[in-house]
Amino acid sequence: MQKQFKRYLVTCALPYANGPIHIGHLAGVYIPADIYVRYLRLKKRDVKFICGSDEHGVPITIKALQEKKSPQEIVDYYHEINKKSFKDFGISFDIYSRTTSKIHYQTASEFFKKLYEKGILYEKETDQFYDPELKQFLADRYIIGTCPQCSYEMAYGDQCEKCGSSLNPTDLINPRSALTGAQLQLKKTKHWFLPLDKYQDVVKEWLFNNHKDWKINVFGQCKSWLEQGLQPRAVTRDLNWGIPVPLENAQGKVLYVWFDAPIGYISATKELTDKWELYWKDKETCLVHFIGKDNIVFHCIIFPVMLMAEGTYILPENVPANEFLNLEGDKISTSRNWAVWLNEYLEEFPNKQDVLRYVLTSIMPETKDNDFTWKDFQAKNNNELVAILGNFVHRTLTLLNRYFDGKIPLCPEYSNEELQIFNEIYNIKKEIENNIENFRFREALKEFMNIARLGNKYINDNEPWKTYATNPLKTQTTLAICAELCGIISVLGEPFLPFTSVKLKQILNIHNYEWDDVGKKPIFSSGHVVSKPELLFEKIDDSIIEKQISKLYKNKDAKYLPIKDSIDYETFEKLDIRTATIIDVEKVEGTDKLLKVTIDLGFERRTVVSGVAQSYKPNDLIGKQACVVVNLKPKKIRGIVSHGMILFADVNDKYVLISPLEQIQNGKPIK
């Protein structure tokens, strides 16, 4: 068991208010946090559960531009959708706040000013990338280019997702805008920086001496960052949407969203309670951040440095970040609509919140990426929730009503077999507690389900439907113990299946029985009346699952990229697109995506480098006619001069060659 603190402050990563919540968010962050908090409450711990919408930053402004709305309209819309979805799903936040609130603006501004007045933040002019089409500086995540380490062509300005290297935008080869595709301009701009490098040693000591017991994926990522050496990081941005930098010489500057957002935990706690300082500044408080793996460095290094620099706050005791959840073997993608959205699930599967909670907990990506499939969802519901848990409870209640009119029978003295059952239950309870307190929620769920498995075995072995006629005392004992196990399920199941727990307690007429009572005193006395059985879970048919799978693929195919800004006809006429035949293709050495393609234009032969090697083998393209933009300026790629661009369609991340329907003479213009 972990050290017990006087109080607990549990935070969840603030979801971005530019879209709804999907199952990846739930499995990675919100379900594990809710299990943990519900458990702490059942143990009578003093705990506050904090979350809210993250409502600033470039993605909000981009969404607003795309939908021709104001940023405030965007965040208002998604804040309400997500707040309702969390509530309907049973995520039991004490407060769900937002970073556009007045108290947050005040808190974040005061935090910045304190660091500035202490001389910690410093001003510096730097060169940053500017998108001339959007007429704004871009956040690192909206700059893409070729990774200098592994040559991956879609690396982001802050990190290469292929090789994991930490990057600065200026490290990228051929940096361009991820939003418009425009070639970027380097422009001078002034910002304020947090000197992470000066906290390298103190962060290292704090992590290595006190938190080696953190999850291996979290500790490993932190260790990697520290070994690379921390670098100063800007805490401001050039943007017109966000919290204005509270200095006189900072017009047009706002607080960087990753400086602003974690302070949202503090402002939400302020909003919740006047005693907020007890939860943020008292060493008897345990601060735990639940996040996904993409936020590890911010919560384990950057935010702790902010707190250290301010000087009066406690630091996180644990950051149990999960890995990513994939969907049907593919990475969840909001842009491709490859996701299962929480608000849609709640509409299409009414009263089945606990089914999704159960499935996502059972496949929670605690130490490595995991995969959700609709077939597995169906199997876990039908074969586990229905056939094991629901079946045991229903059989017990049916037999109690059949033989004893719904009254708990008088139980004679327990035999060694019955005593052994209660010893096993007590051990299972301890394992559940140990796993939850050490953030092993999958194991905790397995232990919980062992109670139902134990009950099914016990009722099968003792066959009360047979002994009722020949040995009624045996039947009384069997059903009294099965009823007790059902009651224990209703109590110990609350962190995992809160809706089912409430329903089962109502059926069993359980009141005022606590978590810590399990194993210490019985739930029922003889004569206690239970209600008639109700189905806790129901089977899900193949047709329902096939409908969800069909919808998923249909949505994915129907999701289109937004149309780029209009151009005039004269601009279009500048493009010279012609027919050509591909006469030779070979892979570019040292890359996974690039092909060196030789084309015949009729009047000359050229070499074009195309990033389609993951869609075509070289021999697949030889002899095909293609459409080629021939008046692009030559460009050197991986040491090869590429002169032109072959046209391909992007179909679900696979490139498809655009070819004429019939053979056309090479070099003919396409108009």
Features:
Methionyl-trna Synthetase, domain 2; 671 residues; globular; 20 helices; Rossmann fold; alpha+beta
CATH architecture of the largest domain: Orthogonal Bundle
Residue share in β-strands = 15-25%
Shape: globular
Helix content: 40-55%
- How large is the count of helical segments? 20
Give the CATH level 1 class of the largest domain: Mainly Alpha
How would a crystallographer describe the biggest sheet?
Answer: 6 strands, antiparallel
**CATH topology category name of the largest domain:** Isoleucyl-tRNA Synthetase, Domain 1
Q: Can you walk through the features of this model?
A:
The protein folds into 4 domains: 172 residues, 3-Layer(aba) Sandwich (Rossmann fold); 121 residues, Methionyl-trna Synthetase, domain 2, CATH 2.170.220; 174 residues, Orthogonal Bundle (Isoleucyl-tRNA Synthetase, Domain 1); 102 residues, Nucleic acid-binding proteins (OB fold (Dihydrolipoamide Acetyltransferase, E2P)), CATH 2.40.50.140. The chain has 20 helices and 26 strands. By secondary structure, the chain is α+β, with helices and mostly antiparallel strands. The strands form 8 sheets. Strands 17, 18, 19, 20, 23 and 26 form a 6-stranded antiparallel beta sheet that branches. A 4-stranded parallel beta sheet has the order 3-2-1-13, sandwiched between helices.
